[in-house]
Amino acid sequence: MAEVEEPIIATGEEEEVVEGVEEEGLLGAEEEDDYVAAEAGPDIKLFGKWSFNEIEIRDISLEDYIACKTDHAVYLPHTSGRYQMKRFRKASCPIVERLACCLMKKGRNSGKKMMAVRIIQHTLEIIHLLTDQNPIQIVVDAIINSGPREDSTRVGGAGVVRRQAVDMSPFRRVNYALYLLATGAREASFRNLKTMAECLAEELINAARGSSNSYAIKKKDEIERVAKSNR
User: Which residues contact 81 (CB under 8 A, 6 or more apart)?
Assistant: First the structure.
């Protein structure tokens, strides 16, 4: 006659140990999930459409001065930050917001930031329709291509003045690029049937491609040519 194995009955202590191990495992998994979620963070999209995640800054020297990643991703280019209170603080201002601020030039446009934000929104829509790319990437590429790398300054005094070529800092390159892009769009739209958004979109696309049709690229080449002659 075959022997029948008796069922093993777990004691109270063993059951408690098993339950404790299961609870610890569940808690550990929950903590790990929370950590991963916190690390990834929400996918913030500009105007609810354009993601900052895949933006690539192709010039390593400008990475610290073009704010478009991680903490600098915003839903709207209107953070109301006090970026002028301290030197270099505006480097942490989202780059699209800096472009919007550059559009508020000439007295009649001073302070009209909502108008500037609306122009930026229409511009990004037009860029996406024309290029089928993320418009934030086009803006970043345009800024990288439009900043002069060399400039000339006045050296000497007492009537003997000559121009000397100097390197331009990365921060000034970004500032100058924004100024040139905004100026080119403003001049193109003045006394023209084209809207400001259309002119700005055209300027940014041409600058991102490095085309000489762009006002910013032409001025950059001119500045670098003058600097080269004054070395």
Answer: 93
Q: Is 92 exposed, middle or buried (0-12, 13-18, 19+ CB in 10 A)?
A: middle
Please write the tens of the pLDDT for every residue from 196-211. Answer: 999 999 999 999 998 8
**Of all helices (H) and strands (E), which one includes residue 46?**
strand 45-46
Residue 54's alpha-carbon distances to 26, 70, 93, 137, 182, in angstroms, are: 34, 11, 19, 8, 25
> CA-to-CA distance for 126 and 135, rounded, in angstroms?
9
Residue 167 dihedral angles phi and psi, to the nearest 5°: -75, 150
Query: Comparing 152 with 14, which gets the higher pLDDT?
Result: 152
Tell me the one-letter amino acid at 29.
A
**Residue 120 to residue 117: CA distance in whole angstroms:** 5
